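We close this part of the discussion by returning to an individual protein. Part of our work consisted of pairing the sequence of a single chain with a tokenised description of its backbone. What the numbers capture is local backbone geometry rather than side-chain detail. The amino acid sequence and the backbone structure tokens for this protein are reproduced below.
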Amino acid sequence: MPHYFDESYSGKVFIMSRATEEEAQAVIYGMPMDYTVSFRPGSRFGPNRIREASIGLEEYSPYLDRHLEEVAYHDAGDLMFPFGNAQKSLDIIEDYMKDLLKKGKFPIGLGGEHLVSWPVIKAFHETLSNLKIIHIDAHADLREEYEGEVLSHSTPIRKACELLGPENVYSFGIRSGMREEFEYAKASGMHMYRYEVLEPLKRVLPDLAGGNVYVTIDIDVLDPAYAPGTGTAEAGGISSKELLASIHEIVHSDVNVVGCDLVEVAPAYDPTEQTAIAASKFIREMLLGFVK
């Protein structure tokens, strides 16, 4: 079995992580990669900061009336990557995810830049039929390349469309992208909902009932007033309250969520830590809501 993690690591884990991987229903894992970002680096430090911020959370969710003691989950730590080697890092994520899915675990990923979601989607595609994506983000991420580089944090959703079929990809909150990205979304048949998340999500979820859905959330869907600690902040976003409500809308639907991630937390740009604090709460709610 490959060694995906530094077994000597003794740092922070997400609050109340107590089960071994073998005992766990769900596994939290970090993907500390930010090698392809086009503006501000630093999201490789996001996973550990989210863990540290989680210590301030209550273990009980009043939204869901569930306590973290009700879910057996294991925080495996951060995957070990060859620094600067994007392709090999993506391969490591994909191999690890295939192993995790063979064991029947529910994966919860902490990014890292958004490109790290791409190998996870690939692994799910090989494992499950009829996979669909709920993508919540400020950016379309539909480029084929960025400055000639096909491995870019601006490309994962385009790659997902090409792999799964654009009709199986649902993007919410989008307020930034090239003209060509919006033209592709319109022509391809993918489902793109601009600016808002909660209301279009409510309309769409009945169509996804019973299907296998992977949820990927870029923290920059929030307005910078709520999440300044991200690499490519974009004005005009939603509030933390709306993102919480959107997560709960998915929880209470008939959608079969098979895994999720939250990416692009870059702690260096937020000395108040409000971004990491919000991210840790979103992870708590997804953990309690998505893991049945």
User: Anything to note?
Assistant: The beta strands are 26-31, 60-61, 66-67, 73-78, 106-111, 131-136, 169-174, 191-194, 212-218, 256-263. DSSP finds eight helices and ten strands in the chain.
